[in-house]
Amino acid sequence: MGKNGNRPMILTEDLWKTYEMGSEKIHALHGVSFEIRQNEYVAIMGPSGSGKSTLMNVIGCLDTPSQGKYYINDRLVSELSDDELAYIRNKEIGFVFQTFNLLSRATALHNVELPLIYNGTPSVERLERAKASLVKVDLGDRMGHKPNELSGGQRQRVAIARALVNNPSIILADEPTGNLDTATGVEIMNLFERLWEQGNTIVLVTHEHDIAAHANRIIHLRDGRIERDEIVRQVEAQKPQPQTTEAAT
């Protein structure tokens, strides 16, 4: 983990997304180009209508651009079959949504198991991996609880555990603190920080400055264009070396 050089994990080249509204054309994305490398922590930020949700859907392979190219781990997404796209959505990208998207009648453990059920993971391995994922987000003592028995922050932790269970290349989080109070939101952002320190690549979509400030790089969108792409924390020199540091102490 943590090879920040080499090829980008995400590469977009001149992405456009155009919607036809009667005789009018609305450009949700307007020639967007950027790259994201392994173990980066990037926030995509912009006001409502800036195109950030559209861009998130394209990055997550939930939507396709009208023109331009999108590569994920060197694969041109437009050339992938439906089965290959489904595999990427299930295995390579861990989604975290504002609304948690948990099954209300299922336990935390079963909610986390779901991606493994969909890809045919054997039941014994499935249980072990789902339990390990819940422990990773500090919910080892809440595995048998259903969503209505958990706080908002705990529900989001279940959703993050579900996103982690397939060891995805990228964690894609859409307004992950939008339904949480300020204190709980800080806890969730601290969890993302810890996951990044463990080597995960995180792409965070938000309209809030204080949430975006947790990332190391912010891509600012406005009117479907990249207004600015800035490094807000210089970490390349020391990242990611948590294990080495611990071993030395």
Would you write up a description of this structure?
This protein is α/β, with parallel strands linked by helices and 249 residues long. The chain has one domain: P-loop containing nucleotide triphosphate hydrolases (Rossmann fold, 3-Layer(aba) Sandwich), CATH 3.40.50.300. Helix content is 34%, strand content 27%. The chain has eight helices and ten strands. A six-stranded mixed β-sheet has the order 6-7-8-3-9-10, sandwiched between helices. α3 packs across α4 and α5 runs parallel beside α6. It starts with 9 loop residues before the first strand and ends with a helix. The C terminus is likely disordered.
Question: What would the keywords be for this entry?
Answer:
four-stranded antiparallel beta sheet; alpha/beta; six-stranded mixed beta sheet; 10 strands; 8 helices; Rossmann fold; disordered C terminus; 249 residues; 34% helix
Q: What string, H for helix and E for strand, traces the elements in order? A: EEEHEEHEHHHEHEHEEH
Shape: globular
Derived structural class: alpha/beta
Alpha-carbon Rg, integer: 18 Å
Low-confidence stretches: 237-249
Percent of sequence in beta strands: 25-35%
Terminal Cα span: 21 Å
Mean pLDDT, all residues:
90
What's the arrangement of strands in the largest beta sheet? 6-7-8-3-9-10
- Helix residue percentage: 25-40%
Largest sheet data: 6 strands, mixed
- CATH-scheme architecture: 3-Layer(aba) Sandwich
Quickly describe the structure.
The chain has 249 residues and is of the alpha/beta class.
